[in-house]
Write a structure and sequence with these properties.
Elements (H helix, E strand, L loop, with lengths): L1 H32 L2 H18 L5 H4 L16 E6 L2 E6 L5 E5 H6 L1
Antiparallel strand pairs: 1-2, 2-3
Length: about 110
């Protein structure tokens, strides 16, 4: 019995990862079209799926939304990106907060 449940959970996690990636692709498309509210909604849904099925969001996707207000970050539209003292600094235009990512960490992943 436990093997069946285990297979079912593995399948659910696999589907959840695919949905998260699909939602981030949709968020990018909406943001490029200027529909920022819809792109923020896609990020919200991706986070919900991640929490529901205990699946981590991929690093590439993690850096595409603000950790404070959870809005989708599109360079020059919703955020500013600078390099300062060996770190990539991303400023969110929505909540006016920033995130710092070491460049070595950024290149490794």
């Amino acid at each position: 019995m436990s093997k069946r449940r285990n297979r079912k959970k593995e399948l659910q996690k696999k589907i959840a990862k695919q949905r998260i990636q699909r939602l981030f692709l949709l968020a990018e498309q909406y943001a490029l079209c200027g529909r920022l509210k819809l792109s923020d909604r896609c990020v919200f849904l991706a986070r919900k799926v991640s929490m529901r099925y205990l699946v981590s969001i991929p690093n590439k996707c993690k850096r595409r939304f603000c950790k404070h207000c959870y809005s989708y970050l599109l360079p020059n539209v919703t955020c500013r990106i600078r390099i300062h003292r060996g770190k990539i600094v991303t400023y969110c235009n929505n909540c006016k907060k920033f995130m710092r990512i070491p460049i070595q960490d950024h290149l490794a992943k």
